[in-house]
Design a protein that fits this description.
Layout (H helix, E strand, L loop, with lengths): L9 H12 L20 H18 L3 E6 L2 E6 L1 H9 L3 H17 L2 H17 L10
Antiparallel strand pairs: 1-2
Amino acid sequence: MESHPRPLDLAQLVALDYLVLHSGEFDGPRSLHPDLPAREGELGRKRELLEQGLLVLIRAGLADMVSSEGGLMYAATETGCTFIEVLEAPYVASLRERAEWALHHYSSPAHARIVTRQIINRAATGSASEGAGHG
């Protein structure tokens, strides 16, 4: 919803989802989820789960599918933005903060490819970042 009204493709959404949850690995805010072994493997399952979640959001009128030159993209609707704005849980506030950070630093399709490559390379070499900000 932080990207509204700009649509994002599935590859961007997968990368941004990982960035939001593991932002500390990318010199961002403290990670929301703990650094578990093999967390890079999340990418394989995330794509399928995000596709299913997007279908639910579209059926509920909270998101739309948009056709573009690059293929299918997804965008939050006005109703979706309103729905998110009424959520007040501290976890939701943390998600929004990290989503703003991720979109500010990694929102282009090229960034999504770079981030995905970095995550896959970490998984292949077993070298997760040891920097500050992990949580």
